[in-house]
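Quick entry between incubations.
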Amino acid sequence: MNSNGINFNADHTCPDPQTLVRYQQGLLSPAEQHQLEAHLLDCEFCADALEGLQLMDHPGTLLQVQQELNERIEKRTGEKKEAIIVRFPAFRIAAMLVIVLIAGGLIWYLRPDTRQEQIVLDTQEPNTPVAEPLKESPEDASPSYESLLSAATNKEVKDAKVPIVSAPSQQAVEENSVQESNAKYHMEEVAGVVATETENETSTLRKSAEVTNTDLAAVDESVANEEQKELTKKKVESTHDRPSSVEAVSVAPQVTSKGKQAAEADLFNGKQKDKSQQGTFNTGLELFREGRYQEALPYLTAATDIPESRLYTGISYYQLNNQNEALKSLDKYVTTASGKKKDEAWWYKALVHLKLNNRDAARKALQQVIELKGGYQQRAEELLRKI
Amino acid sequence: MHPSGPSTEEVLEKEERLRLLEKAILELDEHQQKCIRLFYLEEKSYQQVSEITGYNLNQVKSYIQNGKRNLKIIMTENEQQRD
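Done. Structure below.
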């Protein structure tokens, strides 16, 4: 099969029109026919062409038309070279356009720079006048000068200004300089303070981070004290009814000691007497809050009558990384009757167990914290999820 | 096998595809099967197919066209199943 070399299909080289015409005229051999038919099945373009041919009365004329067209094309391709030459200026025009655009872009790009320079100049120029307004500033400040100015005409004012203004101007300049020096001093001061403050801050931050827990604890402490007082009062009342209630009998022994404590606490708070252990405890607590655990320990351990001392002893030991002692104290506190801060104790027990790598024990402690539903509940829940 | 020819794997793959094609042809209806076999495997022209089968030229043409389309559908289905 003859091929015109034009490929309208990805897989096949399409037959030339002549082959199509010959096929239509039944002039191809069966093998050629098959080849063309196979191609037509895959090539829509040729199939369409053949269909078109079949509609023609004299398909043979197509070949004549094609020949004529080819001749014309050949004539035109003779002019191809010219056409190419004609094309070149188009490229040149495009190139010129590009150059012009680039140049324009560059000019545009450089423009803001000059503007900036102008801005800089504008800002610099007033530098000299800046001093003048500064000199004139007292006028603005004092209404007398202003009224003077408004009373006089502009020129006269300018003339008058010089002598009048000269005195205050010096003053102003001095003031300015004083202000400046003040400002400088202030700046230095600030710089120094900032430097020291940052140091301080870091340390205080560190401290505060440590202390926050204890702060909260302290708040709880005071609340607990008051509540304890109320409790003891109630229980003291209940001790009066001792014979009638069996429960009260069991509570009684604790109550007496607690009542004592509370009474002592009351006395201390009332600043009447300071013979109780409350003072020792308070000193310990203060040191504890400041993060001076080692120093706090002797006071806290001495205040054996105050249950909370065991809690803070425990926490102090925990902070000092003496986990076994911490656990002992916390266990003691947890087993004592008064329970306002048991959640805290359990919380620290959990932390201690974590430090000791007793995960199960830590989990149990955290579950205790959650059951107690105190201020540590949420944190305990979070921690429980993590371990 | 020619040294620069297809590898054993490729040959096997082609064999497999041919086997599937043969199977697919069997799935076509009688007319399409007949025309497809004559046209593609025996490389006859429409005219010859028409003469052999007794179908007119347009029938042959449409059997071959439809048969070809159906084969393509069957083959792609089979390949998808293989994947």
